[in-house]
Amino acid sequence: MVNISESAGSKIQEMLAAEGSSDLFLRIGVKEGGCTGFSYGMGFDDEKHDNDKVFQVQGLTVVVDEDSAKYLYGVEIDWKESAMGGGFTIHNPNAVATCGCGQSFRTAADAGKPNPDTC
User: Fold this and answer.
1) Three-state SS annotation for the chain
2) Which residues contact 70 (CB under 8 A, 6 or more apart)?
3) Which residue in 30, 42, 95, 99 has the fewest CB atoms around it within 10 Å?
4) Is residue 36 within 8 Å of residue 105, measured between CB atoms?
5) What number of CA atoms fall less than 13 Å from residue 107's CA on the CB side?
6) b vs e for 37-61, b when ≥16 Cβ sit within 10 Å of the residue's Cβ?
7) Which of 65, 69, 70, 71 is nearest to 45 (CA)?
8) How far is Cα of residue 68 from the mean position of the Cα atoms in its chain?
9) pLDDT above 70 for 27
10) More confident call, 112 vs 56
């Protein structure tokens, strides 16, 4: 469902280790908003819900809620280093438009609820 590059997987493992809890997993989701219609959310969680999809990628337990899954199918998450530091990048094959910052998108079937003041 979601692809995580080796470099992103290593960075996420490093961040998980810094949290100091073996009960945490990576939660990835989508919510309405952002300048293009939907925005990504990614963070650590320790609570699973009945409608969650759970899978393993790069040695990580990844959880996606059922509503977000349709927007995240085939997403590729990578970690890029630069002179200014590093950051995660998201390539979403379902997106027909994205914003300049890369954190917001819309699909051909759903435009979400854009908020142009968020970029």
Assistant:
1) CEEECHHHHHHHHHHHHHHCCCCCEEEEEEEEECCCEEEEEEEEECCCCCCEEEEEECCEEEEEEHHHHHHHCCEEEEEEEECCEEEEEEECCCEEEECCCCCEEEECCCCCCCCHHHC
2) none
3) 42
4) yes
5) 17
6) bbbbeeeeeeeeeeebeeeebbebe
7) 65
8) 10
9) yes
10) 56
Tokens 């890029």 correspond to what residue?
80
Q: What is the pTM of this model?
A: 0.84
Give the number of other CB atoms < 10 A from CB of residue 101.
12
Dist CA 63 CA 46 (whole Å): 10
- Cα 68 from Cα 42, distance rounded (Å): 12
Copy the structure tokens of residue 57.
């990628």
The two structure tokens encoding residue 95: 């997106």
- What would the two tokens of residue 35 be? 């300048």
